[in-house]
Amino acid sequence: MLEDTIAAISTPIGGGGIGIIRISGPEAIKITEKIFKPAVQSNWREKKFKLVYGQVVEPGTQKIIDEVLLGVMPAPYSYTREDVVEINCHGGPAPLRKVLEKVLQGGARLAEPGEFTKRAFLNGRLDLARAEAIIDIIRATTDDALQLAVNQLSGALSLKLEQVQAELLNIVALVEAAIDFPEDEVEEYSDKKISDRLEKLLREIENLLAGAEAGKIYREGIRTVIVGKPNVGKSSLLNVLLREKRAIVTDVPGTTRDIIEEVLNLGGVPVVLMDTAGIRETKDAVEKIGVERTRATIEMADLVLVVLDAAGGIDREDEEILSLVGNKRGVMVLNKIDVNAHMNTATRDKTRNLLPGWPMVEISALQEQGIRELENTVVELVTGGRVITGEGVMVTNVRHKNQLVKAREHLSEAIAAIQGGLTPELVAIDVRGAWEAMGEINGSIITEDIVDKIFADFCIGK
Ligand code: GDP
Q1: Nearest 10 degrees: CA dihedral of 27, 32, 33, 35?
Q2: Confidence bin at 285 (pLDDT 50/70/90)
Q3: How far apart are alpha carbons 140 and 229 in whole angstroms?
Q4: Are 223 and 329 in contact (CB under 8 A)?
Q5: How far are the Cα atoms of 155, 197, 292, 424 from residue 418, in angstroms, in the given order?
Q6: Taking 60 as the threshold, does the pLDDT of residue 254 lie above it?
């Protein structure tokens, strides 16, 4: 258990029915006592779960600061496994700041970002992968992203990792026994048996990695840009998409994310639209976005939607834009198909061939035709058809993915060593390396600075 008691405002700043100050640590109840007056005299300090109605008052003068509900959650049955008190104040910035000030004067220290969750991890309530799921739940912008984060919090990924780790440790033990007792027959040890077991693990890790690309997209969104020459209908498409598909995105105070981009929910995939200002600027006198700017935004994007005008036909300017997308992934969006004299089949096929490998979708932004098909095409393209299932395990976090890649390398080395007839000592080094790489995912083997770095990404009060 950690020594000091921490406190923070755990709800977003702004007007709201309630706002919560969270206090955690050995002094939580003692500090609250100094400022809380229950409405009915009771022994609210006793260590039991309860909600108590009363007031927060100035310690000396007893002047009322706010009317509150106190949630008392004694250790170890709390979020942090420490004594926790949550003061449910009215949700305005003034009462929250004032009550927090009194709590800090009473002896608590202002919590660092993510410190409550860090304590939950350090006190053994959550492993690291599950603690990280909490931040993903807070930031989820679509139902599917939420589902994945909740699965991770419920421990589906952790369980899978534990199984792999346990098997790795068993193998380490066997290989090390073979080092220590080369003469004796270690019954389960044979090069063939060990290499089969390692290969099975390798396949499991590869399976996890195969889903990681799609998983990352659900967690972080896919950075998308809409490009095309002036008047093809980019802003019309943008408006249709925003009207129908805009995802709920809230500012997360205290996080590094300072620009709020437009986020669409396309079939559960968070699509982060970049440079939407650039599209709208084309309405100004200065018409062209300019090739350089288009090139720069394409460069940063994971996905490109190139809008073409089916009624006006394809010209050099379109071809120039198409030549910029290079090896990016994307969709050709053929707009204005509502216009009577739009492309004939031959021209359409020719257009399709301008970017072989890219799907082409025909739409009318004006009449909102083909939007659903565009959505399905994007989802298929970025997820490769992987669907989110109820209790599915999907790696969504880049840190986890990197550790899996390390584990895979070690396993491949170990397999190569054993099949190449190298000594068990050399095999053991790599199996152990794989085990350590896995351990950094759930935090069973991890250094303090990695832990600090992970939790610093959280917001204050979490
Ligand atoms: P941008 O310059 O690429 O952003 O193009 P806009 O969205 O401003 O559209 C240019 C013009 O094309 C406007 O007059 C739109 O009303 C029109 N337009 C956009 N989409 C369609 C469409 O699907 N069909 C038709 N007929 N006109 C469209």
Answers
A1: 140
A2: very low
A3: 34
A4: no
A5: 33, 12, 53, 7
A6: no
Q: Which atom of ligand 1 is nearest to the CA of 232?
A: 3
In this prediction, residue 391 has a pLDDT band, given cuts at 50, 70 and 90, of: low
The model's confidence at residue 248, banded by pLDDT at 50, 70 and 90, is low
- 437, 208 Cβ separation under 8 angstroms: no
Cβ of residue 235 lying under 6 Å from some atom of ligand 1 = yes
Which of 236, 283, 309, 374 for a ligand 1 pocket mutation test, highest count of atoms within 8 Å of Cβ?
A: 236
Contact 234, 228 (CB under 8 A): yes
Distances (CA, A) of 428 to 72, 120, 173, 304, 365: 50, 34, 9, 46, 61
Give the strand pairing for 84-90 and 262-266: unpaired
Q: Is 92 exposed, middle or buried (0-12, 13-18, 19+ CB in 10 A)?
A: middle
pTM confidence score: 0.74
Task: Assess contact for 378 and 223: CB atoms under 8 A.
Answer: no
Does ligand 1 lie within 6 Å of residue 306's CB atom? no
Distance from residue 271's CA to the centre of ligand 1 (Å) = 22
Distance 231 CA to ligand 1 centre (A): 6
Q: Are 35 and 56 in contact (CB under 8 A)?
A: yes
Name the residue of 231, 234, 242, 317 to mutate for ligand 1: max ligand atoms within 8 A of Cβ. Answer: 231
Locate 44 and state its tokens: 């609210």
Rounded Cα gap, residues 449 and 99, in angstroms: 32
How large is the average pLDDT for residues 426-448? 90
Q: Give the chain's domains with CATH numbers.
A: 6-126 (3.30.1360.120), 132-211+394-443 (1.20.120.430), 221-383 (3.40.50.300)
Which DSSP symbol is given to 222? Answer: E
Share of the chain above pLDDT 70, in %: 89
Cβ neighbors of 397 (< 8 A, separation 6 or more) are: 129, 132, 136, 215, 216, 219
Q: Is the pLDDT of residue 242 over 80?
A: yes
Q: Quote the CA–CA distance of 276 and 283 in Å, as a whole number.
A: 12
